[in-house]
Amino acid sequence: MRGVSHVAVGVADMEKSLHFYRDLLGLRVVIDEVQDIGGIQAMKEGTARPSRRAVHLVWDDEPWATFIVLSQFPGVQSNPPPKLNQVGINHFALWVDDLRERAAKLEQAGVKFQLKPSEVPAPTYGGGKTQKVLTCIFEDPDGTLIQLDQQL
């Protein structure tokens, strides 16, 4: 394996989520389209081919860079996302260079923090024994947990 291709996040309200991921986190939209995802299974069952609105967001212009996909399935209700102590992918983390500034912007916008910016030892992040990482965890509009990390 070489790295993460993308992170897919299901959302209830695309406009709210776009405001959060694009305007507050600073990601850039590169694709915004309705996609037919029914495929062969829907044809076999004789059911309608489901579609979703998918928005791809990036923070880097490098070819093959990791990206985030926000997906909204119209009319579909779902359970809340898992929390840190639950089974399943319960959060994702992004490296940043300006964590305190980003956290302040999120806090001013009323974003709910599970962990405010805190310094922690770096070994669990791949760093050396004497190094530190600044980290924080907060919720997106649907309660999905996101972590920001900064190497100090």
Folded structure, characterized:
The chain is an alpha/beta fold and 152 residues long. The protein has 2 domains: 1-78, 2,3-Dihydroxybiphenyl 1,2-Dioxygenase, domain 1 (Roll); 80-152, 2,3-Dihydroxybiphenyl 1,2-Dioxygenase, domain 1 (Roll). Helix content is 18%, strand content 37%. It has a 4-stranded mixed beta sheet with strand order 1-4-3-2, covered by helices on one side. It has a 4-stranded mixed beta sheet with strand order 5-8-7-6. It is globular. The protein starts with 5 loop residues before the first strand and ends with a strand. The mean pLDDT is 90.
Indicate the topology.
Elements (H helix, E strand, L loop, with lengths): L5 E5 L3 H11 L3 E9 L2 H7 L5 E8 L8 E6 L19 E4 L3 H10 L4 E9 L10 E8 L5 E7 L1
What is the structure about, briefly put?
The protein is of the alpha/beta class and about 150 residues long. The chain has 3 helices and 8 strands.
Mean pLDDT equals 90
Task: Please tell me how large the radius of gyration is.
Answer: 17 Å
- β-strand number: 8
According to CATH, what is the class of the largest domain?
A: Alpha Beta
Q: Give the fraction of residues assigned to helices.
A: 10-25%
Number of helices: 3
What would you give as the CATH superfamily of the largest domain?
A: 2,3-Dihydroxybiphenyl 1,2-Dioxygenase, domain 1
How do the strands of the widest beta sheet line up side by side?
A: 1-4-3-2
Low-confidence stretches: none
Structural class: alpha/beta
The 3D shape can be described as globular
What name is given to the CATH topology of the largest domain? 2,3-Dihydroxybiphenyl 1,2-Dioxygenase, domain 1
Q: Using the 3D structure, state the CATH architecture of the largest domain.
A: Roll
Main sheet attributes: strand count, strand direction, barrel closure:
4 strands, mixed
Order of helices and strands: EHEHEEEHEEE
Work out the count of structural domains. 2
Beta content comes to 35-45%
